[in-house]
Structure prediction request, 287 residues.
Amino acid sequence: TSLLSVNSLIDEACEDVVYGLDYPWQGVTDLTYGQRKKELISIGAGVGVGKSLMAHEITAHNFKRHGWKTLMIMMEESPAETVRNVCGKLDDIPYHIPGTEFDKDVLRATANSIDGSIIIWNPDENSDPETTWASIKQAIRTHGNDIDCVMLDNLTTLSEGLDSSEKNDFIGLVSKEFADMAMKFDFEAFQFSHLNTPAKGSKSHEEGGRVLESQFTGSRGAMRYSHMMFGFERNKQAQDPNCSIIRGLKNRKYGKTGVVKTYYEASTGRLTQRNWQDELYENRKVG
Prediction:
């Protein structure tokens, strides 16, 4: 009964293959042919390079452009910070930066507009890795039929306290179960990860070093179960440290990979696509 005939699949095979929904960056949409539910996307970056920034941008874009409902599991920021960050992307105002002058009524109105469409997991539930993951799974199962996307930021924090072997096994389990839930409940799953140290003699990720699939925390699980994998690269010591790169590393369905240049607009707090000059990514000269 588990076998299918070719004849029973011909009509479905003859249907047009269509683009998924667009990303905030046209270049990423072109690389991936768009966002699709039932897929797991893994994104890795160095410390303080901009993983959470991507989560905020994609969440705000999917709300504004596609009317999507997102469950945000942000383990390295408070829930109020998550609200400020997502609203900032919608209003083009960096609410999260100290000293930013803004109209609180505008922020309040934007926050009210996303209420019910953005659900935030309470990080106070954070405990040991197994207990925390069980709590997160319960939240996903509770809201699974009503959400379009889940952001899990990040796997490194989730697995904190485990030794290397335990961490790899645990992240492999998380990746598998996350992918399974995305398929079962019909949502798009994003998981974010820090990176292991590059090989000796290679540029650090905090200085713009290239991201490899094998450098993701718990890389075996991420590589096995992810439909897409991206590296986010930024040189914090560059002549212009606002220059960054989204690097497509894995594309299970279509095999298309490549690089999309992006730029952090400090005045708005937005990450936009921009074709900056390569020399701006080089280390700034000292002395």
